[in-house]
Amino acid sequence: MSQANLDQTEAPSLIIQNIRQDFITLDGTELNVLDNINLGFREREFISFIGHSGCGKSTLLRIIAGLQTPTQGSILYKGKKIKGTSAARGMVFQQDAVFPWLTVRKNIEFGLKLKKLPRDKVRAQAEKWIALVGLGGWEDAYPKELSGGMRKRVDLARVYANTPDLMLMDEPFGALDQQTKSNMQTQLLRLWETAGSTVIFVTHDLEEAVFLSDRIVVLAPRPGRVKTIMDVSLSRPRREELRLSEEFLAEKRKLHELLKEDA
Amino acid sequence: MPASKVSVEADGVSDTTPDRPMSPAEVMRFRRIERLVIGTVSLGTLVLAYSVVSNLPGTNPALLPPPQAILATAMAKFSDGTLLTAVWASLSRILIGYTIGTALAILIGSLMGWFRYVEYVFDPIVECMRPVPPLAYIPLIILWIGIGEESRILVLVITSFVVCIVPTFSGMKQVPKVYVEAARTLGASEATIFYKVAIPFAVPFIFAGMRVGMAASWATLVAAELVAAQSGLGYMLQAGRRFFDTSLVMVGIFCIGVLAFIMDRIFRTIQVRMSRWEEVSK
Is B153 in contact with B225 (CB distance < 8 Å)? Predict the structure, then answer.
């Protein structure tokens, strides 16, 4: 499946066209990280990129964010070729990216202030997202006073408050413990339902991908390429109990098989 | 009361009795008191010993003036205004020279840490100046611009610049990439990233540099005033030596110590406040 996966009913808003990425390694050899990537995503879709390490999933996400210029190919958003980074494409990183010198509130207001919104609108928008991620009462705390899971919530609120069209997430919950991770996934789905932006989520966790996504892009390594795209046929809203259901396990098994083949 | 005490029990078994353990706050408090008491006793003993020796018959009061004589000199110099004039002369030099030097260091240091080519241009210059003690420039500066006020201020500019630029530069170099990329994807321009991400991150480094720079400036100033000045605390010390007024020399040393101490405390307070967000503060 190398050609754009176009949906018949709705034109894709995000089109990834012919992306190729080469890197020069330290010893001077050329490394082909991504080759011939063609994908199309609809508005409000929840997409995951999954694959073994070295399949270039993070690189692809960074290209979509505009943090990395591809060797070849382009990304079109609503018909326009993207260039560089933009507040319209928010990104949550695996590392802790919350600014330690700002309080919770100031962190969440960071992007809003850059938009030159009136002061009271910035306040109101920040308040809204602080409440939505359940950090009420922690507004004036510094990040060092928060747990890892809470800091991740600040990070999510900061990006969501910026109302991006596209949420890019690079293994955002990778550093959290299992319990916190599950909570964060449920919370992310709620935020996604509220905000309505398209999400592209990079992970190597099968359960995470199945629980969250509408579609899962399975990537194969060396060079990174699209192996297949799996539709997740689980109804929404998805709640915690779903994880133990037969249908969930069946989907997880399916994804496992897709990943295993010639891996 | 110590955290634990050793006791020998009746059956001959020696062990540390598990007294009610102290909470970390109690331990801290206890240690603070211990430190204060022992410190006071130590300093008091030194002063007392000096007092006794200097008051012994046969001690030359010209070399070891007794505390009461030193105090009298201090009072005299205070009431005739000499002391305050000297303090103000030194302080005003510090304020001007240090402010200019530190401002230059923050400006150039932060640009060096952020822009590769600024680093390439300034790094060799800074690296060449760094190992030279600022005092070594004094003869050159005197040759060039004489022994006026400007030369003393220039030495202070050099001192505070060289000391403060290194931590500023290194703080800016250490800004984590993930903060920069996060700001970028939140819509920040390169200029915004510089002053809203990089500078705030480097603030604790900059303040550490400013504090060390202040201490170094004092040291340099006094030395500069010893060599070439008609006013200031350093000059007062030199005058005391010339007129064999040991009391005056001691008053001068004491004043320098107290002023430097106060300045450092002020800086430390600001530094702690500015670095409150850091993982390890205080």
Answer: no
CA torsion, ordered A144, A149, A154, A155, to nearest 10 deg: 110
Q: Spell out a b/e string for A40-62, using b for 16 or more CB atoms within 10 Å of the CB, else e.
A: bbbebbbbbbbbeeebbbbbbbb
Kindly state whether residue B207 falls inside one of the protein's structural domains: yes
A:44-83 residues touching chain B, CB 8 A cutoff: 65-67
Q: Within the 175-194 window of chain B, which residues sit less than 8 Å (CB to CB) from chain A? A: 176, 178-179, 181-188, 192
Residue B125 clears pLDDT 60, i.e. is over it: yes
* CATH code: domain of residue B81: 1.10.3720.10
pLDDT of B196 strictly over 70: yes
Q: Is the pLDDT of residue A155 over 50?
A: yes
Q: How many domains does chain B have?
A: 1
Q: Is residue B142 part of a domain?
A: yes
Query: What is the distance, to the nearest Å, from the Cα of residue B155 to the centroid of all Cα atoms in its chain?
Result: 17
ipTM for the whole complex: 0.91
Q: Which of B186, B201, B206, B272 to mutate to test the interface with A (most CBs of A within 10 A)?
A: B186
Q: Which residue of A has its CA nearest to B280?
A: A144
B163 within 8 A of B209, measured Cβ to Cβ: yes
Residues with Cβ within 8 Å of residue A13, at least 6 apart in sequence: A41, A42, A43, A77, A78, A165, A198
User: Is residue B231 one of the residues assigned to a domain?
Assistant: yes
With bands split at pLDDT 50, 70 and 90, how would you rate the model's confidence at B24? Answer: confident
d(CA B54, CA B99): 42
Question: B182 or A116: whose pLDDT is higher?
Answer: B182
B22 pLDDT tier (thresholds 50, 70, 90):
confident
Read off the DSSP letter of residue B133. Answer: -
The token pair at B122 is: 């300034």
Strand A46-51 and strand A198-203: the pairing is parallel
Candidates A68, A82, A101: best to mutate against B (most CBs of B within 10 A) is A101
Tell me the chain A residues in contact with residue B185 when contact means C-beta distances shorter than 8 Å: 65-67, 85-87, 89-91, 159, 168
Least Cα separation, residue B214 to chain A (angstroms):
25
Within a domain: residue B81?
yes
Structural domains in chain A, sorted by start: 1-85+202-263 (3.40.50.300)
Q: Quick count: other Cβ atoms within 10 Å of Cβ B153? A: 22
Return the ∠ at Cα A151 (arms to A149 and A156), rounded to 5°: 95
What confidence category does residue A9 fall into, taking pLDDT thresholds of 50, 70 and 90? low
Predicted local distance difference test score (pLDDT) of residue B148: 86
**Domain encompassing residue B158:** 70-274
**Average pLDDT rounded to a whole number, residues A240-249:** 93
From the CA of A99, how many Å to the nearest CA of chain B?
7
